[in-house]
Design brief:
Length: 89
């Protein structure tokens, strides 16, 4: 059975005794803890809503991110900011 992104994002990441901490994102903590460069600026592209060509969006997204970094963790961490509507949910 496949879990939805919402179910995955609410999975416990660390349990000590009877207390669990929860992450509210779909990535492993190492990705979310990767710092953005002080040079990082918001991307200049239309946010993807699921109604246009996803391959074109990925190409535009990776081209813009690669202007700042080639770090795959940053590529993952920033990707949700390029989405909106049904594509984000």
């Amino acid at each position: 059975m496949h879990k939805s992104a919402h179910e995955v994002s609410k999975a416990p990441t660390h349990i000590v005794g009877d207390q669990a901490t929860f992450r509210c994102h779909p990535f492993v903590d190492d990705i979310m803890e990767t710092p953005l460069s002080h040079r990082w600026k918001p991307l200049h592209l239309d946010r993807y809503d699921g109604t246009t060509d996803p391959d074109e969006h990925i190409d535009l997204y990776t081209t813009q991110v690669n202007l700042y970094t080639n770090n795959d963790a940053i590529l993952c961490r920033v990707f949700p900011t390029s989405l909106k509507g049904a594509a984000l949910n």
